[in-house]
Amino acid sequence: MEIDATSELGNEDVASWVGLYGSELYAYAYRRIRSVENAEDVVQETFFAALKNVSSFRGESTPRTWLYTILRSKIIDFVRKAQRIEVSEHSSDDLDNLLFDDKGHWRSLAAPTSWQSPNTADPTESGFQDYINSCLAKLKPIPRTLLIMTYLDEVPAEEIRKEHEISASNYWVLLHRARHAMRLCIERQLAKEKESPL
Amino acid sequence: MISCQHATELMTTRELRPLTLFEMISLRMHTAICSACSTFEKQIASIKSAIMNEPDSVPGSEFINALERAIKERRL
User: What is this structure's pTM?
Assistant: First the structure.
């Protein structure tokens, strides 16, 4: 979109950006937050902030790039607000105790066994995707976003960690717990499916 | 021989940095003989690829329309 740097931008311009970029900004936010309501909130905040600061937008970047910059900072704000981190370096103890004995061997009930469900044969299959989403929804916002952003791998892990002001060891702990929690959650969903076949 | 707990820890570390040669060999030797951990590794990988391949979601048109209206009406 061409921007005439000499003309004043106003409500109509920002409103037209909603039509042009609203959907992709929403998709970007949803991918990271995985909640319709929260993704709508950050996108709305992004456009309100854009409107408020539109006079400082001089067309040095494209409106799209500028909106993405605002959106990214809104996502970080959202995750920070959603949960003040209370993770100590030892907080994975409970999970470790649940999964492993004191020698570090899997406890017999916790040991992973093969997922022999037709739904999991192909991870891109929609049934499995539904389990993934419902299990992601059960994670707290910070571990959820960290896990997703680490996996999407668009931004170096080190940068994600610094943006969220998380220490390297807490980042590792959060990621590690989230991975175990996701696997356990999926396994439980599959067990339920076995009990009550459609 | 490293423990199962340590093996799963190395798998997490691998997401954040490349493992050292020693770590890599320790992990490979463990998963080669431990079926629980090699199953764990496969399951974690399938979760990762499902998260990465999540199709883009589309916002409700109601949301976009309402936001457009709100922006037009909001005073600068």
Answer: 0.77
Q: What is the pLDDT of residues B14-45, one digit of tens each?
A: 999 999 999 999 999 999 999 999 999 999 99
Say how many residues make up chain B.
76
Structural domain harbouring A39: 11-82
Number of domains in chain A: 2
**Is there a contact between B16 and A30 if contact means CB atoms under 8 Å apart?**
no
Taking the CA of residue A86 and the nearest CA in chain B, the distance in Å comes to: 20
Same domain for A131 and A61: no
Name the residue range of residue B14's domain: 4-73
Task: For residue A176, give the nearest of B9, B69, B72 by CB distance.
Answer: B9
pLDDT digits (tens, 9 = 90+) for B4-13: 999 999 999 9
- Separation CA A67–CA A54 (nearest Å): 11
Which chain A residues are Cβ-neighbours of B63 within 8 angstroms?
A: 26, 40
Do A51 and A97 belong together in one domain?
Answer: no
CB contact under 8 A, A176 and B8: yes
Alpha carbon A186 to its chain centroid, in Å, reads: 18
Burial of A85 from C-beta contacts in 10 A (0-12 / 13-18 / 19+): middle
3-state secondary structure of A83: coil
Domain membership of residue A6 (yes or no) is: no
Distance from CA of A102 to the nearest CA of B (A): 10
What is the amino acid identity at position A184? Answer: L
Q: Evaluate whether B27 touches B44 at the Cβ level (below 8 Å).
A: no
Domain total of chain B: 1
Of A55, A106, A151, the CB nearest to B36: A106
In a domain, A2, yes or no: no
Give me the interface pTM, i.e. the ipTM: 0.85
- Is A179 within 8 Å of chain B by CB? yes
Give yes or no for A157 touching B (CB within 8 A). Answer: yes
Residue A122 and residue A75 share a domain: no
